[in-house]
Amino acid sequence: YLKLIMAVKNLPVSPSVPPGSWFVRFYTWVLYDCIHWGLVLCIAAWQQFTTSPPILDIDNLAKRTGNVAVLTGGPRGIALGMLKRLVQLDFTIVIGARDIKDSQRRVDEFANSNPDLSCSKVTIFEMDLMSLASVRKFADNVMGNFSRIDLLLCNAAVIKTPYQVTEDGFESQFQANYLSNFLLTDLLLNRLKATAKMKGSPCQIIYSSSLIYPFGKVDFKELETSTVYTPVKAYIPTKLYQVMSMLSLEKKLLGDDAQVHCYAVHPGLVLTDMANTLPVMSIITKRLSGLFRTIQQGADTILWPAFCADYQNRGGLYMESGMSQPIAKIALDKEVQSNLFARSQELIAPVISSK
């Protein structure tokens, strides 16, 4: 059924064969990609009408001249909205993108359409989340060229329809959405801690999350792989891993008395290119575009904890619409948090030790 969907969408079919029999995969697709995803869309749509996204009041925020923000994902969609705000606040911005030429073109287009804003402080380095070595190289470039990091924005993510295994041997969504961001955070963490100590105020690490995370589960038997694959089934647990490791990292930082805080932020239901990688979503977005928040609203929502006085000095938070939300019980299991964090460190250890 995946090949049929990809053929209809005129998209390339992955050479990797999805695990699981066609019947089990079809049943799982109905359960996760239709029922679970549909339920989440209903919840998200309800939020659109019952909550309002925060708006960054740029005119009343102090300029951050000299501050460095690291942003993952090419300047498109929500990342482009974040780029705009960071440029307005005079940040020095480092972008990690898979395609440097395309990203530079998008930055140039942004600069041309916003002549009152300067993109002279934007640097783009190559980073492919499907390769841990590429993430390591990006981190080395950042560390070698910038003496401080004030804000780390782990925004890049995928919802791939075809099943793929990365060069590192992991299921692609597990690596791109979770493990590569875990690695990048680990590689840049000491610079963030040093920056916070130097300036005497907190630095922030923000992960673009999703309200779908409570529907996930941590199964250590298939953490890095899948016994049965569908796009949404693989996507959901990566968001749970993200929230759980964020909580573990915040606890570790508090124990180290480090002034670095971590957040997982759901941007709201935003119409982006990533949504359209799922055939079901592309149909919905065309029919119900009025339900979605704008890209700028999604960007402001993600950036909010770094600039809101109520949140920038405390972390370990999951946030929606500019407000801290109770964390789902499934993410609060201390033993699973600890085991997940330890297992993730084991998986990135070969890359860390290859200095």
From TrEMBL:
UniProtKB keywords: Oxidoreductase
Domain of life of the source: Eukaryota
Any one Pfam family match given in the protein's UniProt record, by short name: adh_short
UniProt keyword Metal-binding, yes or no: no
Keyword check for DNA-binding: no
A Gene Ontology molecular function term of the record: oxidoreductase activity
PANTHER family named among the record's database cross-references: PHOSPHATIDYLINOSITOL-GLYCAN BIOSYNTHESIS CLASS F PROTEIN, PHOSPHATIDYLINOSITOL-GLYCAN BIOSYNTHESIS CLASS F PROTEIN-RELATED
Protein name: Retinol dehydrogenase 12
Organism encoding this protein: Orchesella cincta (Springtail)
